[in-house]
Amino acid sequence: MQKSSIQSAIQAFNIIRDIPYQLNVAQKDTSCNSKALLLRELLTRLGFITRNMCCLFDWNDLPIPRSLAKLATQKFGTINYHFFLAVKIDNCWLNLDPTWDKGLCPPLPLSRWNGKSDTMIAVPTKSIRVYKKLFKFENRLKSGEFAVQFNNWLAQTRKKYAP
After folding, report:
1. Which of 35, 49, 70, 157 is the most buried (most CB within 10 A)?
2. Contact 85, 77 (CB under 8 A)
3. Residue 136: pLDDT above 60?
4. What pLDDT shows up at residue 66?
5. pLDDT at 157
6. 145 and 71 Cβ atoms separated by less than 8 Å
7. 61, 109 Cβ separation under 8 angstroms
């Protein structure tokens, strides 16, 4: 890939990453899988080869309020899925995770990408694998008490740490 293509890919990553993350409420979904799909579309238009990735994680391992982690665990169980993307550059697969936006850092980790190496994954992973199906948002997170409370916490976090 040419340097200008890599720079365009980095720009695309930053744009998608900085879309405010939120679970689907009232048809607005900017969750991990939605952001990964958007990034895949942009990178594909730029001529990159991508693949869907998936990992397992536990809400209790995230730096979120214990009450939210407890609610997530009660509703969805201990192990959950997180989606991100891999892109092929110079015959190497690099993991790209645009999940958390700048407004959530801290307490959530902000992924940065230099075009040469993996980004950090937004969640502490239990295992990672290629996800051969199309990303499909899990209906169980689309609405309900957890989505509302989690989105409220995200909004409060952005206000607290806004520059």
Report:
1. 35
2. no
3. no
4. 97
5. 96
6. yes
7. no
Q: What are the tokens at 98? A: 């645009």
Residue that is written with structure tokens 């409060």 in the block = 156
Which contiguous run of DSSP H or E holds residue 12? helix 3-17
Domain 3-161 has CATH 1.10.10: no
List % helix, strand, coil for the chain (3-state, nearest 5). 40, 25, 35
List, as own/partner pairs, every contact residues 71-74 make where C-beta atoms lie below 8 angstroms and the sequence separation is at least 24, other chains included. Answer: 71/145, 71/146, 71/149, 72/146, 72/150
Cα–Cα dist 17/14, whole Å:
5
Which structure tokens are listed for 74?
Answer: 């009660």
Collapsed DSSP state (helix, strand, coil) of residue 6: helix
| DSSP letter assigned to residue 101 | -
What global pTM score does this model have?
A: 0.89
